[in-house]
Amino acid sequence: MNRVNATTAPAADSYLLGLRIRGAVLMVFCLLTLGTILVRLAWVQTYYPERVSSLRCFRNSRTGPLPAPRGRILDVEGRALADNRFAYTLFVNPSRVPDESRDDLARMLRDSFGCDLEAVGEALQDARATRRILIPEMSAVDLDRFEDLANKSEYSRLLQEVGIWRRETRVYPLGPLAGPIIGFTASRDDGQVGLWGLESRYDDVLAGRPGAYEDLRDQRGNRIPGSRREIEAPRSGSDVILTLDADVQALAETALANGIGRTGAVGGVVIITEPGTGEIRALASRPACDPSRFREYLTDEEALFPRSTSLSFESGSAMKVFTIAAGLEEGVVQRDSILHVTTGRLPFRGGTVPDHEYGPPDMSLRDIVVHSCNRGAALVAVGLGRNRMIDWLRRFGFGQQTALAMPGEPAGNLKEGLIPLPEIDLANMGFGQGIAVTPLQLAQATSVFANGGMLVPLSLVRGRLDSPWGYELRPVSVQPRRVLDPATVEIIQDFMVGVVEEGTAVSARTEWQCAGKTGTAQKVSPEGKYYDNRFYATFVGYGPVPDPQWLIVVILDEPHYPYFGGAACGPVFREIFNALMLREGEIAHDETEPVQPMEIPPLEAETWDENLGAEVVLGEYVLSSDPFEDESSEN
Question: Which domains does the chain possess?
Answer without folding.
Answer: 64-234 (3.90.1310.10), 246-617 (3.40.710.10)
